[in-house]
Design a protein that fits this description.
With about 280 residues, the protein is mainly α. It has helices at about 10-30, 35-60, 65-85, 90-115, 130-165, 180-205, 220-240, 245-265. The longest helix has about 35 residues, at about 130-165. The chain is flat, with a radius of gyration of 20 Å.
Length: about 280
């Protein structure tokens, strides 16, 4: 019986690749040289290949905590490669790769603590092999990507604002995008994430079987944190377009939203059985 080469790919394969890419990017900032960037992209690309192979072979469900973290990390890894090439002169990878690596490591920790989570079962209405269940999961995943991009842009914005406030010379620190571009990135991520989260939550509520409509599952950590995430983004939309609060306050709220996102991703799906925590 032949063994698929994809079977040997583990979390460690792409986690270590992302870690090497991050260390090489930090080295490039300390000792500028073209070779660091090329080596970093090589390790980052290898990590994405291994990451993709793992997902193709294991097919993790986004309803499981470890699966949602892995899928989100994979999309952000693509975002990291694109941004590193597109913003070649900026310290892009130093901010995005820690998020990717953190999600992968958190996924690995969850699997190590509960190996049964890889056999996570979701009901038919939410399964990816059902059209509307797949759309529901895809909308929430894309919304999570928007939240993560908003988080990265907010961290960079706060750091750049502090540098300008302290009059730090650009040559003395890692190069970052301007405040205007970071604010634009945050605004676009907000404009994309909010309708996606809204549509995903609305579709999920419609897909729920009648038996679940008034159960205790509605008060689970996943449901409450996801609802809280949506409310925070609703507040962000109102503050940005309704009362035009300073971008610095919006950045802090975006960081809070990312924390709620992590809480929602780590929590078990309240309507699934088996493999949950």
């Amino acid at each position: 019986m032949s063994v698929s080469p994809l079977q040997g790919v583990t979390h460690a394969c792409f986690a270590l690749s992302y870690l090497c890419a991050l260390l090489l990017e930090i080295a490039r900032l300390l000792w500028p040289a073209t070779g660091w960037r090329l080596a970093s992209l090589a390790f980052g690309g290898a990590g994405i290949v291994a990451h993709t192979a793992y997902i193709l072979y294991n097919q993790p469900t986004p309803a499981a905590p470890y699966g949602s973290l892995l899928l989100l990390a994979w999309v952000l890894a693509l975002f990291y490669i694109y941004g590193t090439i597109h913003h070649a002169k900026q310290a892009w990878a130093v901010f995005v790769l820690p998020v990717v690596l953190g999600l992968v490591v958190l996924s690995l920790v969850l699997v190590s603590m509960n190996p049964a989570s890889t056999r996570f079962h979701v009901p038919d209405w939410a399964a990816a092999n059902r059209f509307w269940g797949a759309i529901h999961g895809l909308l929430l995943l894309l919304g999570a990507v928007g939240v993560s991009v908003s988080f990265v842009a907010s961290v960079m914005y706060l750091m750049q604002a502090r540098r300008l406030r302290n009059k730090v010379l650009p040559d003395d620190v890692a190069p970052i995008l301007s405040l205007e571009r970071l604010e634009t990135m945050n605004r676009r991520a907000l404009n994309i994430a909010f309708p996606l989260l809204t549509a995903g939550l609305f579709l999920g509520s419609l897909l729920l079987p009648e038996a679940y409509r008034f159960g205790g599952n509605w008060l689970s950590v996943k449901v409450v944190s996801t609802a809280g995430l949506w409310l925070v983004f609703l507040l962000l939309v109102y503050l940005r377009y309704g009362v035009h609060v300073p971008a610095r306050r919006l950045a802090w709220l975006s960081i809070l939203a990312f924390g709620l996102l992590l809480m929602a991703l780590v929590a078990s799906h309240p309507f699934a059985v088996g493999g949950g925590s």
